[in-house]
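wait is this the right file?? whatever heres the structure
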């Protein structure tokens, strides 16, 4: 705050000399001045052109420019009427002090149009004027000083002013320098573009850069990966591609830079400045026929860049809601041409007519070899499982030769189960061996199902990059801690893609918007609006007979189906509106909606009418709800690399048979406690093993996130849901909707590819608590049983095996892929059976039952699993990391053996819980799980103990009973025929390990349990 004092005007002195109206340094509340001046309208020349309509309040500098000839008349009239407001406040006296006159004549033009505070004056002779600045002013001044403070321009160019515009609240912006009338068009355009902050940059580099391209160019290539749009006038700014965060204005020869993140605007301006200078220096002409002494090459003769002159930058379609007229000081504003902003693929099948952006047309795919290592490894592992089963059969035949008892061959009924369970064990054994001795060079090469190297530049595609739609399903996650960081990461990738010439948008399927509090709902909607995000929110689930039902057990599939169905309806309505406009019938609306938003409203009304006006979907931003040729599906807790969209577009264009590019993901950690670290280590290890398998020739899995999808292929794999007869994209009856999608795509002849060239740029969140990780494993087990077996209640009509599995087995998918996929699904049955088999083993062997030699004892199984998984598995993976050049041999081995105790308790405590999930599906029990927590929740001992008891009390009770049984049966007072002595450690140890694992599972894996804070 600063204070300025000056004397009142003395009578008779104003006619001889006066200074201009008070400058913005006094922060004058000019609203009263404007009303005051309206009383003298008849005396002021050109007063009618005074921009009262454009600016609700008029500033002293503008007033002085229009009204200076009559200031003396006003002062005389004031004195005659006994008033001194204008005289004492706005007109400096001729007898003012030298200091006062210097201040009034040289103070900069600074003022705030929207400030609720400003100059406050009294009727005293010595007027005290007080200026108040808030946080926004400080930011504006700082940004101005850092970006334009050292700029020098000719005085004749005052009508082209640089400035800073900052959003202080929704729909309300503040501009600096304050109330410069030449910045009114800038502020109006920025308000419609709606970034958080925008800077209008004037510099010699901007002038020179615009001079390097022809007048009809629509963009400038600052470098190979940065293509910035050129707009004719400032009024075209709302039609700009917002994701580029920058646009040149041709008529004013300025650069507009904007951002939704205040922390990045300065670095953005600096980046532009550096690239502009490099461009200008590369494009310089020879002065006087002598190359520059600063150059050591012939670059001085490089002609100006005209690369962008033939490349049309996709523009947003013009709409009634955009600027129709902006006051122009020098020329009439030219309206932008009505063009579609994005290139959309509206066809529902791959056989749609060719379009300029059709990825399947006109491109020659690069040949990729099919690796045959995976078939060999899988075949060897399947043969090893046959050997294990065959060894049991050999034992039966040897025993039959001794006693001729054929009844023991009834044990062969268990052979299919034994083979299926041993298959994963055998394949894991083969993997460990191949990690040690198998080839690994192909891990760095591309093949049919694997991409280690990003695709080569494709000039034909790069000039017409397809639109990328980011699908982001969310629920009740925290906006600030989970959703916003993911969106900010996506926006960076979208900015890179926009500067490469592509367009993109974010489509949020918000299943929690109608369930959260009104305050949280408003914050979400505001956040979506500020970041140009399209969103759809369906009604909440209702248990009423006529209420809305959210289908599915986990709702994600039905959530995305709901949004996609509305988007397709909107496309149909949009086609009708465009056809109407083409036939000469105007589709404009009175409220100024663009065609996409009008089509969205029509689609919403159609859905509302279809369900009998019971519920209406919520949706906004029709442009961002349109689906492009390429879809990136992510989770709410996801980080993506900055440059990934163009690589995906190139690869999909290069390989028309690829439907999904699944990227290997690293881990995004937030808590960094030992449990999250352990699960992060396990996730990275699994992903690396998948990468190696796909490099060997294994068919890539689709995990449901961090994957690029071909929209035409996804629609080609759509199906009619028998429950409601509607065509749907995602299966709502399967927990594993991602596997179902992958299977349908493969049946249609598409392939899925695993990509690693992002080098860990994609990151996913992992479970933060042991409860969430247990829920995850139970969901996986439930989903696998859902894919393999029908519920018992439907066996009489559908049989035990699902139609989906029968279709998969008899499909044309590679045979080795069928073995590896089945081994993965059967591994859950092996884990689930371990607890029950350990109990059975304890009593059968402990009570010396007549057990056939075909029976494999629990201790032998435990010993084999210990050797193969923590033993050979860790050694093999350590050597693999070393052979791939990723880790030092010693540090990799040390890290892997460090986590052995963690996984000992983790896998040791899963069996009963997985059994519960498998049986729940088999007996049609409605098992439920809580939503996965994405944010860190601080906890302590006193909070965790009740939680552990509430969920694990049945396991604890069973564990105590089992331990008591082991102790009691080992005591001497138990009859000898019922006694299981403690010396029978091979019988007791397997059951003891299972019990200890289940009892200690929620205790030793709980990072908050040992915090005794309160």
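ok assuming it is, sequence goes like this
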């Amino acid at each position: 705050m600063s204070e300025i004092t000056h004397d009142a005007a003395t009578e008779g002195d104003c006619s001889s000399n006066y200074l201009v109206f008070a400058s913005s340094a006094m922060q004058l509340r000019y609203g009263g001045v404007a009303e005051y001046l309206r009383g003298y309208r008849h005396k002021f020349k050109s007063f009618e052109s005074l921009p009262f309509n454009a600016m609700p309040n008029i500033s002293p500098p503008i007033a002085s420019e229009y009204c200076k000839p009559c200031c003396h008349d006003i002062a005389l009239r004031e004195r005659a009427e006994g008033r001194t407001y204008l005289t004492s406040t706005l007109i400096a006296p001729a007898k003012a002090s030298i200091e006062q006159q210097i201040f009034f004549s040289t103070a900069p033009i600074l003022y705030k149009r929207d400030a609720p505070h400003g100059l406050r004056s009294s009727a005293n002779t010595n007027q005290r004027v007080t200026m108040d600045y808030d946080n926004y002013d400080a930011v504006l001044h700082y940004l101005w000083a850092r970006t334009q403070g050292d700029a020098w321009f000719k005085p004749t160019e005052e009508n082209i002013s640089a400035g800073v515009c900052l959003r202080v609240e929704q729909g309300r912006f503040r501009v600096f320098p304050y109330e410069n009338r030449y910045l009114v068009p800038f502020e109006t355009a920025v308000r419609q573009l709606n970034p958080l902050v925008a800077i209008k940059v004037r510099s010699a580099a901007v002038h020179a850069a615009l001079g390097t391209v022809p007048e009809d160019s629509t963009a400038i290539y600052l470098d190979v990966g940065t293509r910035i749009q050129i707009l004719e006038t400032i009024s075209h700014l709302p039609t700009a591609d917002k994701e580029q965060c920058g646009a040149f204005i041709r008529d004013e020869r300025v650069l507009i830079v904007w951002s939704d993140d205040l922390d990045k605007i300065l670095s953005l301006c600096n980046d532009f400045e550096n690239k502009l200078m490099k461009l200008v220096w590369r494009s310089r002409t020879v002065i006087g026929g002598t190359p520059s002494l600063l150059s050591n090459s012939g670059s001085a003769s490089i002609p100006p860049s005209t690369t962008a002159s033939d490349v049309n930058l996709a523009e947003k379609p013009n709409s009634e809601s955009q600027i129709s007229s902006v006051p122009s000081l020098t020329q009439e504003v030219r309206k932008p041409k009505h063009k579609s902003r994005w290139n959309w693929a509206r066809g529902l099948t791959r056989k749609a007519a060719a379009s300029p952006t059709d990825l399947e047309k006109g491109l020659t795919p690069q040949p990729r070899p099919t690796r045959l290592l995976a078939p060999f490894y899988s075949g060897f592992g399947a043969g090893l499982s046959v050997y294990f089963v065959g060894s049991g059969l050999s034992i039966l035949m040897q025993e039959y030769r001794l006693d001729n008892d054929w009844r023991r061959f009834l044990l062969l009924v268990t052979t299919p189960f034994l083979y299926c369970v041993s298959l994963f064990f055998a394949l894991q054994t083969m993997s460990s061996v191949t990690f040690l001795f198998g080839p690994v060079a192909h891990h760095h090469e591309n093949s049919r199902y694997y991409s280690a190297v990003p695709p080569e530049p494709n000039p034909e595609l790069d000039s017409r990059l397809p639109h990328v739609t980011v699908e982001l399903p969310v629920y009740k996650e925290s906006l600030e801690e989970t959703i916003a960081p993911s969106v900010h990461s996506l926006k960076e990738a979208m900015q890179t893609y926009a500067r490469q010439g592509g367009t993109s948008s974010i489509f949020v399927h918000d299943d929690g918007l109608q369930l959260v509090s009104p305050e949280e709902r408003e914050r979400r909607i505001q956040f979506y609006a500020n970041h140009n995000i399209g969103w759809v929110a369906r009604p909440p689930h209702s248990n009423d007979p006529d209420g809305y039902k959210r289908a599915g057990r986990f709702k994600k599939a039905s959530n995305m189906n709901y949004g996609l169905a509305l988007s397709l309806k909107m496309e149909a309505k949009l086609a009708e509106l465009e056809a109407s406009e083409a036939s000469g019938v105007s589709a404009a609306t009175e409220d100024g909606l663009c065609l996409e938003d009008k089509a969205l409203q029509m689609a919403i009304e159609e859905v509302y009418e279809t369900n009998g006006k019971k519920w209406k979907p919520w949706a906004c931003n029709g442009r961002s709800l349109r689906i492009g040729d390429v879809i990136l599906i992510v989770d709410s807790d996801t980080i993506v690399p900055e440059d990934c969209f163009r690589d995906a577009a190139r690869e999909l264009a290069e390989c028309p048979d690829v439907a999904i590019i699944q990227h290997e993901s690293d881990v995004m950690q937030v808590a960094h406690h030992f449990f999250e670290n352990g699960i992060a280590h396990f996730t990275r290890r699994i992903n690396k093993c998948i990468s190696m398998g796909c490099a060997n020739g294994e068919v890539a899995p689709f995990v449901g996130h961090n994957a690029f999808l071909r929209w035409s292929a996804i629609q080609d794999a759509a199906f009619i849901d028998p429950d409601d007869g509607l065509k749907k994209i995602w299966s709502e009856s399967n927990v594993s909707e991602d596997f179902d999608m992958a299977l349908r795509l493969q049946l249609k002849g598409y392939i899925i590819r695993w990509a690693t060239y992002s080098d860990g740029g994609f990151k996913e969140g992992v479970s933060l608590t042991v409860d969430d990780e247990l829920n995850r494993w139970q969901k996986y087990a439930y989903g696998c049983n859902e894919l393999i077996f029908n519920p018992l209640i439907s066996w009489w009509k559908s049989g035990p095996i699902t139609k989906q599995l029968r279709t998969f087995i008899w499909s044309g998918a590679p045979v080795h892929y069928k073995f590896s996929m089945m081994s993965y699904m059967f591994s859950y049955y092996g884990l689930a059976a371990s607890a029950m088999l350990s109990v059975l083993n304890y009593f059968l062997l402990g009570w010396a039952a007549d057990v056939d030699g075909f029976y494999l004892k629990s201790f032998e199984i435990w010993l084999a699993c210990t050797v193969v998984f923590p033993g050979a598995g860790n050694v093999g993976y350590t050597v693999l990391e070393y052979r791939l050049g990723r880790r030092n041999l010693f540090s990799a081995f040390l890290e892997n053996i460090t986590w052995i105790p963690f996984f000992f308790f983790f896998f040791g405590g899963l069996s009963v819980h997985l059994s519960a999930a498998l049986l729940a599906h088999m007996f049609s029990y409605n098992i439920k799980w809580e939503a996965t927590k994405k944010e860190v929740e601080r906890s302590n001992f006193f909070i965790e103990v009740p939680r552990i008891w509430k969920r694990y009390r049945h396991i604890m009770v069973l564990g105590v009973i089992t331990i008591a049984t082991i102790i009691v049966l080992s005591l001497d007072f138990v009859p000898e025929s019922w006694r299981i002595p403690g010396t029978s450690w091979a019988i007791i140890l397997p059951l003891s390990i299972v019990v200890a694992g289940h009892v200690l599972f929620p205790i030793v894996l709980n990072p908050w349990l040992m915090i005794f804070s309160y």
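The first strand starts at residue 2 and ends at 7. so i think its the right one actually
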